[in-house]
């Protein structure tokens, strides 16, 4: 029989958030220098971070991160955006993309990211369509009639004189006029 770890009732996220909000509302305005590290975390950090982590997990579930090995979802990018948007010290809470955040923009200027592979960008439907089109193209190209036509086209390109040969006399005329 497996041992199942169950979080005590006091660690349930909803209850913890309510307690932290209660602590924050009942606290006299404390200065950062006056708080103990535990109070600082309880009053200033957790009330913003815990809802962000909750939103992160909800978004990861929506992006099917727990069902696949690789996804385009980047939890750190999501949490950075979410915390920037929901920062209580900022007054303007508009939707802002990750690349528009000033400190992220300066970081990315010095540390550019590699491009994301198409397999992570495309939806399952788009990927299936591309795979099917390549497969159908392969099936058509391997037919004998198509093989024969492609061989004929290769031969015609090589011998038909498509690449124009310019005689020496014409080249000399251009050199004299230049």
UniProtKB/TrEMBL annotation:
InterPro entries hit by this protein: IQ_motif_EF-hand-BS, IQCK
Pfam families: IQ (PF00612)
PROSITE patterns in UniProt: IQ (PS50096)
Superkingdom of the source species: Eukaryota
Protein name: IQ domain-containing protein K-like isoform X1
Taxonomic lineage: Eukaryota, Metazoa, Ecdysozoa, Scalidophora, Priapulida
